[in-house]
């Protein structure tokens, strides 16, 4: 389901806050040929490109955590009474992972 998000993160450079996640995802992809194949299936240009294949899974993990966490908290009513109405919170949560990966 989240494979289509991978290309969003291949053209960016991870900022300092995302660097540790990129390093850990790089080790994961390097140790698991299935992960590397999954990335290459969604981002064919990433096959053999360590930079792209490093950023893509890291961005995907960060995006999933942001979006899932926000949706889960909203569904549980955790934001009730905080003034979060309409679109500002989901929009901000969606933009945060993208902001962690500046365009190269």
Question: What is the strand and helix layout of this fold?
Answer:
Layout: H1 6-10, E1 12-14, H2 19-31, H3 33-42, H4 50-75, H5 88-99, E2 101-103
Antiparallel strand pairs: 1-2
Helix pairs in contact: 2-3, 2-4, 4-5
Which features does this protein show?
5 helices, mainly alpha, 63% helix, 104 residues, two-stranded antiparallel sheet
Structure description:
- Residues 66-104 are annotated as: Disordered.
- 63% of the residues lie in helices and 6% in strands.
- It is built from 5 helices and 2 strands, in the order H-E-H-H-H-H-E.
- The chain is mainly α and 104 residues long.
- It starts with 5 loop residues before the first helix and ends with a strand.
- The longest helix has 26 residues, at 50-75.
- The mean pLDDT is 75.
- It has one domain.
- A two-stranded antiparallel ribbon has the order 1-2.
């Amino acid at each position: 389901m989240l494979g289509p998000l991978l290309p969003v993160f291949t053209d960016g450079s991870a900022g300092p806050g995302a660097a540790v996640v990129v390093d850990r995802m790089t080790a994961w992809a390097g140790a698991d040929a299935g992960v590397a194949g999954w990335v290459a299936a969604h981002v064919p240009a990433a096959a053999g490109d360590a930079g792209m294949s490093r950023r893509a899974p890291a961005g995907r993990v960060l995006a999933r955590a942001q979006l899932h966490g926000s949706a889960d908290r909203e569904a549980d009513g955790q934001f009730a009474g905080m003034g979060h109405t309409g679109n500002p919170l989901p929009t901000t949560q969606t933009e945060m992972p993208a902001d962690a990966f500046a365009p190269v």
